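Entry 12.
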Amino acid sequence: MLGKTELLEAIAGKNRGLLASPGDRQMILASVAQLEDRNPTPRPVEATDKLNGNWRLLYTTSQGLLGIDQVPLLKLGQIYQYIQMETAKIYNLAEISGLPYLEGLVSVAANFQPLSERRVKVNFERSIIGLQRLLDYRTADEFIQQIASGDRLKAIDFSISDREQRGWLDITYLDDDLRIGRGNEGSVFVLTKVL
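Predicted 3D structure (tokens):
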């Protein structure tokens, strides 16, 4: 699909948005809008087979995520979002690097409720911040399974109350390996499925 190729070329080399200039951002958002107009999945919330699984972030306008890279001595690594449709759970995971042996992880677990054919309400439940070495971190999939089991981990691991963190997300484009979403704070997210 031509629009998809154009979007992927536009975000290539932009380090999830960290290296995007204002002009780059305008071009990328125009490409996103064009692709959203050609969404092959008109009812994405109902497309459980396509939504299920692990997704890696390619690009975002979220200052909450991109701001992690602004903390001295920290560098934002890969960011994943794991969706379990059967349990209505979402797990977000950001890898953090910086000082040797002090590589970290920031993770948030949430539940979701469909509000429409393309919008889900997200209620954040749990946050985990820790060092990869202490958590014996190997892969995003393995770590998500640890979190999903409900076990407490060797990390800062705490519950988030409903009133503290909630929002919604519109899934505006979905195919077999690409997903675009727009959040309640105006952020855009472009993700690719991890096979």
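Annotation: The chain is about 20% helix and 40% strand. The beta strands are 53-60, 75-84, 89-97, 104-114, 119-131, 156-159, 166-174, 178-183, 188-193.
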